[in-house]
Every structure is written in C-alpha cells, then in structure tokens.
Design a protein that fits this description.
The complex is a heterodimer of chains A (225) and B (152). Chain A is mostly helical and 225 residues long. Helix content of chain A is 82%, strand content 0%. Chain A has 13 helices and no strands. In chain A, helix 1 packs across helix 2, helix 7 crosses helix 13 and helix 9 runs parallel beside helix 13. The longest helix of chain A is centred in the C-terminal third of the chain and has 29 residues. The radius of gyration of chain A is 18 Å and the shape is globular. Chain A starts with a helix and ends with a helix. Chain B is mostly helical and 152 residues long. Chain B has two domains: 77 residues, no CATH class; 73 residues. Chain B is 84% helix and 0% strand. Chain B has six helices and no strands. Classes of the chains: A mainly alpha (225), B mainly alpha (152). At the A-B interface, helix 1, helix 2, helix 3, helix 4 and helix 5 of A face helix 1, helix 2, helix 3, helix 4 and helix 5 of B.
Chain lengths: 225, 152
C-alpha cells in the first residue's frame, strides 16, 4: 500500500517536474532537483523514515538497471562516430579518471578529511553501483558514496552547461566525454538536451569509465593511502 | 498495441539486464550488471542478432524516464545528517570542485585530441585528392579572416 502511494506520487511529481522544466528550461528546475527536494521536505515534515519511503522507492530503482542497458540503443545509433573517435575517447577517459582521483584526493588532504571520507569520496566519478562497490572494498561508507555520486552528477547537470559555455567546450565529443566520465546518469540526462550524439558519447564514456574506474580506483587508493 | 509493444521491448531489454546479473553472480566481477547488459545488447545489435526495431520503442521509453529511476537514490541524502557538519560540507565542496576540474580538463583534452584526429583525417583526405597545398592555404585564409572578423 505504502509502496503504491510512493510510486504513484513519485511518478506524478516527476511528470509535473518535467512539464515545468520543459516550460522553463532552467538548470535549477531539473526534475531530479525539484522532485528530490520536494520529496525530502515532505518526508521530513511528515516524519517518514527513508526506509519506509524506500518500500516504494526500491521498486522505482529496479528500473534503473534496464534503463542503463537501454542506453545501448543510442550507442548503436552512433556506432560510426564512436569508431571514428575511439582514440579521443579512450585517451580522454584516462585523463578524466586521473584528473578526478588526483583532484578530489588533494582537496580532501587540504581539508584534512578523515581516511574514511577519502575512501568514500574517491569513487565519486563512477556510476552509482560501481562506486558503491568500490567504496565498500576500500572501507568507505557506501551509501554516503552514493550521495556524493549524486552531488557530482548535480554539479555536472547544473554547472556543466555553464562551464562548457565559459570554457568554449563546444563539441559533442568533448561534452559527452567530460559529462559521461565525471557526472554519470544525472549529467547524461542533461546531455539529452544537446542531442543524441552527446548522449551516446556520454553513455559510452560512462560505461567505459565505470569499467576502467573499477580497476583504477582501488589501485590509486593502494598507492596514495 | 503501442503500449504492448513497449512492454514487450522492455522485457527484451530486461533479459539483457538479467544476463548481466547472472554473469556478475557467476564470475564475481565488480562491474555493474547493467553495464554488462549494455555491452551485450550493443554487441547483439552490431551482429544483427537483435534488430533495432525490436527494442527502439522500449529503449526510448526507458531513456525518457532515466531521471525518475535515480530519484529514490538522491532522496537518500536525508539519511546523512553528518553532511551538514563542517567535515560533511568540505567533503561535498571537494567533490563539487573536483568534478568541475575534471569536466574542464577532460573537455579541453578531448577537444584537443579530437582536433588533432580530425586534422589527421583531413590531411589523409587531401593527400588522396592530390591538392594539399592549395586547400590548406585557402583554409588558412578563411581561418585568418574568421579570427579577424571576431576581433572587431
């Protein structure tokens, strides 16, 4: 019963949020932001624990896996482009991986963060399921990693387009690789607005960097910690 | 009819996801099942084992709702009151800054490599045409006039 209410209300909220965003395409009105904030406010005000909400939430979450699989479709549609730029994509992904790891590690050292927090934050560039598993094996806090992954995603979804404009990063390849390797699902959702080319390179980059990152992250942690 | 087709196509996509789940269970690799499913589906599309029209409506439907499926995870923020302590705020700040740095460095690098790769392709094509000098000098003129007009 609770599950059904959560599912229906989340879907309705999402559809309304999407309508609002289509009318006013402002990054601060991204459905993931408006719906998340409204849900959090409602749960806090009604004093409903996250676990209860997740009775319905985990059913919605079940679709995330198949939805990621579905990204093979835009990937397939752009196959020629991907083969043409395979060196750009692979080289840039390695740059992205190390830029992400080194920058977050040095910032946290500067902020004198605890080892646990460092382990928790290192996999933040990876897609949620991989990030949580890597965080776990590094003795980080896996659910907190999921939240940081979302923050990285929000950063890309909200500030990414502004950064791209400011830094003249204006090709589908560069936007797609940057978003896919740094901001996973949320960033990719934003790429949809640039077009299918951005989206397919983004999803390819997310997939490849998840695979590469699952190996590179633990090795990096072993070297620096 | 259309709804039925979308449901059937989602089932096909779900089968690939399930194949990913099974592979992860059997081999114990720490790659997420969805990524394995994505690669499998992509390979099947490339080899024409799965036809595009078998999945395109279902895939389009799932992708248009991609954001919805993330919402329960993001609501998980509610579970972490320590995020509002100084250490938590610094942790988030580090992630935000690091993400921006990564986006910038990666975007710029990708654009630079892409330019080199395109130039290389272009040069190859020009050599095939056997008119490299003319074409190149014309291009330079265009580029110069382009930057000149931008200056004013």
């Amino acid at each position: 019963m609770i599950a059904l209410v959560v599912i229906i209300s989340t879907v309705i909220l999402f559809l309304l949020g999407q309508k609002l965003y289509n009318k006013f395409p402002n990054p601060f009105l991204l459905p993931i932001l408006t719906v998340t904030i409204l849900t959090v406010i409602f749960l806090l005000m009604a004093d409903i624990p996250y676990a209860i909400y997740m009775e319905g939430g985990h059913i919605i979450q079940l679709m995330l896996g198949p939805a990621v699989v579905a990204l093979a479709f835009p990937l397939y549609n752009q196959r020629q482009l991907i083969f043409k730029y395979k060196y750009s994509i692979l080289c840039s992904l390695f740059v992205a991986m190390f830029a992400g790891l080194i920058s977050v590690y040095s910032l946290l050292l500067l902020f004198k963060a605890s080892d646990t927090f460092i382990y928790t934050a290192l996999p933040k560039s990876l897609t949620t399921p991989v990030a949580m598993q890597v965080s776990d094996s590094l003795t980080g806090i896996a659910p907190l990693t999921a939240v940081l992954v979302m923050i990285a995603g929000f950063t890309g979804g909200i500030l990414g387009p502004i950064l791209f404009k400011f830094a003249h990063i204006d090709t589908a390849i560069s936007r797609g690789i940057a978003m896919g390797s740094a901001c996973h699902g949320v960033g990719i959702a934003k790429l949809k607005e640039y077009g299918e080319e951005d989206l397919s390179i983004g999803s390819l980059s997310m997939g490849l960097s998840a695979v590469i990152g699952a190996f590179v992250c633990p090795i990096f942690a072993m070297i620096v910690m | 009819m259309n709804v039925l087709r979308i449901i059937l196509q989602i089932l096909i996509i779900w089968l690939f996801y399930y194949a990913g789940v099974l592979i992860v269970e059997w081999t114990g690799v720490f790659i997420p099942p969805s990524i394995i499913g994505l690669v499998l589906l992509w390979v099947c599309l490339m080899l024409n084992i799965v036809k595009v029209k078998w999945i395109q409506n279902g895939a389009g439907f799932l992708i248009s709702f991609l954001t919805l499926f993330f919402i329960p995870t993001t609501v998980g923020i509610i579970e972490y009151p320590e995020l509002s302590t100084l250490a938590g705020v610094l942790l988030m700040l580090a992630v935000i800054l690091s993400t921006l740095v990564t986006l910038f460095i990666t975007g710029k690098t990708a654009q630079w490599i892409e330019k080199k790769e395109t130039e290389l392709e272009h040069r190859k094509q020009l050599i095939e045409k056997e008119e490299p000098i003319m074409e190149l000098s014309m291009e330079q003129e265009v580029m110069q006039s382009d930057s000149a007009s931008r200056d004013y």
